[in-house]
């Protein structure tokens, strides 16, 4: 017995007429009669009673009609789900990300994605850059927003560069350097620096050390906390100067960001497995690329009040964040 046979029987049982059911199904009436007869023989039960004036559904036929209707409705819904999944309109998106660099845009981007694809289940995991790469490579994440890490090229993942984030100093607005357009790397030689721990952000940490090395000195790292927020807290407490990217310092009443010179940056990238490029992943990537091209990921940075800047950024846009 095939699904189409159930559909044929359903049409006759609902129409209570072989002729009307044949028109509805667009098949010949004799073929329809033959299918119903074969079903009755296979089930060993009379499904429809027929005489010259009418067709009546038997108790066995009524039971089959209920079950067939449920089955056919479920089948149609399954087909719709398959089509939606193929179009990226249904399925699962497991997104790994690093926190502060993605804060300017991730919430807005996900809201737009959920509006466009409400049937896609989105799962978020905030991880270190290395962990995002590892989990995407192993298939535990669908896609990731992260920074390049050592040996990342050996994992065979596809990447899109989203932005080169400029390095700079976060310092109190009362600091003598707060009003500068930029700060030379060489000025940091005698300063106590606060840098994110390498285990939490190898790309940022190594970029800071490389910049100091190119300027001819070994930095004095006063603190290497695990969270960017702790870097800012140390700066507020007067424990030293923080070396961060321009994306992590939002509008702040007491702190400001001043770029370093010569310019140095660390990338923010999108990573995914080409072999596991599911439709929901492709739709997310397409939306992200549209936003990037339209400049919607980061808005231009504004100047701060007198006594410092919220970050000149030298062409590095960012999204203003609410306090």
Describe this structure in words.
- This protein is an alpha/beta fold and 323 residues long.
- It has three domains: 3-86, Winged helix-like DNA-binding domain superfamily/Winged helix DNA-binding domain (Arc Repressor Mutant, subunit A), CATH 1.10.10.10; 91-162 and 268-294, Periplasmic binding protein-like II (D-Maltodextrin-Binding Protein, domain 2), CATH 3.40.190.10; 165-266 and 302-315, D-Maltodextrin-Binding Protein, domain 2, CATH 3.40.190.290.
- Helices cover 39% and strands 22% of the residues.
- It contains ten helices and twelve strands.
- The strands form two sheets. Strands 3, 4, 5, 6, 7, 8, 9, 10, 11 and 12 form a ten-stranded mixed beta sheet that branches. A two-stranded antiparallel sheet has the order 1-2.
- Helix 1 crosses helix 2 and helix 1 packs across helix 4 (59-86).
- Residues 301-323 have low confidence and may be disordered.
Number of H- or I-type helical stretches: 10
Apparent shape:
rod-shaped
CATH topology of the largest domain: D-Maltodextrin-Binding Protein, domain 2
Q: Encode the helix/strand succession as letters.
A: HHHEEHEHHEHEEEEHEHEEEH
Structural category is: alpha/beta
How much helix is in the residues?
Answer: 25-40%
Number of domains: 3
Relative strand content:
15-25%
State Rg.
32 Å
Spatial gap, N to C terminus: 65 Å
Low-confidence regions: 301-323
What integer is the average pLDDT? 86
The CATH top-level class label of the largest domain: Alpha Beta
Biggest beta sheet summary: 10 strands, mixed
């Amino acid at each position: 017995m095939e699904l189409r046979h159930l559909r044929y029987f359903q049409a006759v049982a609902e129409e209570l007429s072989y002729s009307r059911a044949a028109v509805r199904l667009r098949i010949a009436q004799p073929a329809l009669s033959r299918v119903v007869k074969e079903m009755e023989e296979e089930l060993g039960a009379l499904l429809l009673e027929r005489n010259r004036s009418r067709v009546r559904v038997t108790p066995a036929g009524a039971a089959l009609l209920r079950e067939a209707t449920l089955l056919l409705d479920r089948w149609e819904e399954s087909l719709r789900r398959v089509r939606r999944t193929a179009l990226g309109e249904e399925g699962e998106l497991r997104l790994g990300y690093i926190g502060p660099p993605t804060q300017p845009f991730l919430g807005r981007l996900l809201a737009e994605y959920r509006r466009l694809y409400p049937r896609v289940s989105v799962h978020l995991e905030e991880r270190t850059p290395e962990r995002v790469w590892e989990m995407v490579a192993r298939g535990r994440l669908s896609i990731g927003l992260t920074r390049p890490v050592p040996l990342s090229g050996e994992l065979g993942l596809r990447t899109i560069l989203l932005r080169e984030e400029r390095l700079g100093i976060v310092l109190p607005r009362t600091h003598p350097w707060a009003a500068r357009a930029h700060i030379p790397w060489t000025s940091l030689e005698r300063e106590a620096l606060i840098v994110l721990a390498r285990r939490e952000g190898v790309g940022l940490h190594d970029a800071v050390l490389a910049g100091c090395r190119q300027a001819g000195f070994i930095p004095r790292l006063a603190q290497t906390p695990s969270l960017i927020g702790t870097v800012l807290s140390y700066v507020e407490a007067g424990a030293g100067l923080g070396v961060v990217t321009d994306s992590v310092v939002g509008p702040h009443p007491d702190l400001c960001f001043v770029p370093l010179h010569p310019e140095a940056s660390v990338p923010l990238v999108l990573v995914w497995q080409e072999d596991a490029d599911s439709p929901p992943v492709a739709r997310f990537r397409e939306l992200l690329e549209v936003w990037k091209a339209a400049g919607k990921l980061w808005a231009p940075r504004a100047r701060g009040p007198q006594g410092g800047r919220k970050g000149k950024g030298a062409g590095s846009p960012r999204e203003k964040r609410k306090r």
